[in-house]
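We were asked to recover a plausible sequence for a given structure. The inputs and outputs are reproduced exactly as logged, with field labels preserved.

PROBLEM: sequence recovery
POSITIONS: 221
GIVEN STRUCTURE:
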């Protein structure tokens, strides 16, 4: 796979609490130059990015982030505003406490409602694998599938660990055919990037991909 093909699967990410507008501009300029799948940015920056770059860039944002325990109505309101501001893709965090309490039907219903709020826009569901048992991960694969979400995503990048080979292999066994996979958190080397794509991930969430691949990109890319 070429560098260009790999970057087409990257959600170029800047979600630090102290991200400045200059940081966001640098992210967006790289995303446009290297044609990443999207930029994944804080909700507060969506409108300014859209006003600045228009349709040149695909904007992704996060909802219920990073802890997931906002109530469903608050998450819906975040989605409505994000789409109004010009966002195209939503990465939501499940209510991890509900998962740990075994309330899998409740989590599934929340995902279903948030997918309805997204409409035709992409919804990626972050299950934060580092906090879950294998049984809970399998239950989340089923919930994401049954609720009609577009992607299952490993991690926020703010937890105790990020994406692992074992979790992606587990996802592959238990998600439905219409659900894609996104690896995020700790994807920090070219080998990581290549591995997760080879395992079948359609998206990779990382801030490092452009830097890792610049050396392989030809002049005028």
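RECOVERED SEQUENCE:
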């Amino acid at each position: 796979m070429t560098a260009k093909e790999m970057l087409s699967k990257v959600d170029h990410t800047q979600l630090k609490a102290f991200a400045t507008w200059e940081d966001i501009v640098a992210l967006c300029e790289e995303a446009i130059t290297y044609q990443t799948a999207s930029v994944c940015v804080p909700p507060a920056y969506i409108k300014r990015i859209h006003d600045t770059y228009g349709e040149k860039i695909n904007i992704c944002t996060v909802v219920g982030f990073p802890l997931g325990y906002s109530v469903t109505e608050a998450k819906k309101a975040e989605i409505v505003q994000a789409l109004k501001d010009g966002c195209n893709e939503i990465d939501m965090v499940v209510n991890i406490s509900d998962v740990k309490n075994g309330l899998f039907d409740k989590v599934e219903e929340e995902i279903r409602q948030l997918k309805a709020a997204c409409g035709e826009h992409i919804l990626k569901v972050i299950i934060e694998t580092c906090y879950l048992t294998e049984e809970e991960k399998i239950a989340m694969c089923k919930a994401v599938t049954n609720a009609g979400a577009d992607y299952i995503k490993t991690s926020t990048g703010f937890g105790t660990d990020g994406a692992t080979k074992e979790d992606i292999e587990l996802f592959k066994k238990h998600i439905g055919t219409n659900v894609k996979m996104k690896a995020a958190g700790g994807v920090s080397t070219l080998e990581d990037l290549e591995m997760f794509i080879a395992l079948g991930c359609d998206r990779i969430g990382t801030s490092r991909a452009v830097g890792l691949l610049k050396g392989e990109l030809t002049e005028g890319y």
